[in-house]
């Protein structure tokens, strides 16, 4: 027969185990959120019609540790180039020459087919043709007439890329992978 004292010890041991388990779960979840995958919300109209304000995304913070951004990737930017956290599409990689003529974007003298673009593309304050430097990316919003992007603020440092938007999770009818 168990005594009241042994029952109390068993209860304390179980509470201690649960506390440790929950603490570990919280730490793992926080590390996962900060370094692997995170949830982000679209805040502006610069990526319409691909992304609309209020949509929620899953951001991959992990894969760019193993490979560099690619043309067409939708990236989250959090750096000194802007006071705001930005979501943009990668148009130019280091060594690429970006040109804008007659409302169209040219990458290394070849016109880019961009079915996702809303509006015409005009050159901004950055002189074109523009050669993307080492450690930099040239990014633009899909809503070209209403986007604060590399045409206005210049190239983005590779180190300012927080991650890649990979999945739209809200609203539910739009749930799915983000493609190029």
**Any idea how many domains?**
2
Order of helices and strands: HEEEEEEEEEHEEE
Strand share of the residues? 25-35%
CATH superfamily of the largest domain: Umud Fragment, subunit A
Instruction: Name the CATH architecture of the largest domain.
Output: Ribbon
Q: Which structural class do the helices and strands define?
A: alpha+beta
Helix tally equals: 2
Top CATH class of the largest domain: Mainly Beta
User: Which stretches of 5+ consecutive residues score pLDDT under 50?
Assistant: none
Oligomer: single chain
Biggest sheet features? 8 strands, antiparallel
SSE topology:
Layout: H1 4-35, E1 37-41, E2 56-60, E3 74-77, E4 86-92, E5 97-101, E6 104-107, E7 110-111, E8 130-131, E9 136-140, H2 150-153, E10 156-157, E11 161-170, E12 176-177
Antiparallel strand pairs: 1-2, 2-11, 3-4, 3-11, 4-9, 5-6, 5-8, 6-7, 9-10, 11-12
């Amino acid at each position: 027969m168990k005594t009241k004292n042994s029952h109390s010890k068993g209860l304390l041991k179980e509470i201690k185990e649960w506390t440790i388990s929950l603490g570990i779960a919280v730490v793992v979840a926080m590390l996962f959120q900060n370094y692997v995958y995170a949830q982000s919300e679209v805040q502006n109209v610069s990526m319409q019609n691909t992304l609309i304000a209020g949509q929620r995304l899953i951001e991959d913070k992990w894969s760019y540790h193993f490979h560099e951004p690619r043309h067409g990737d939708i990236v989250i930017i959090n750096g000194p180039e802007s006071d705001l956290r930005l979501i943009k599409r990668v148009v130019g990689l280091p060594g690429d020459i970006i040109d804008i003529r007659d409302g169209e974007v040219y990458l290394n003298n070849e016109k880019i087919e961009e079915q996702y673009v809303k509006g015409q593309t005009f050159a901004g304050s950055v002189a074109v043709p523009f050669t993307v430097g080492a450690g930099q990316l040239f990014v633009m919003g899909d809503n070209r007439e209403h986007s604060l992007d590399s045409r206005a603020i210049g190239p983005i440092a590779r180190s300012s890329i927080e991650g890649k938007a990979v999945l739209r999770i809200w609203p539910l009818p739009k749930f799915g992978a983000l493609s190029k």
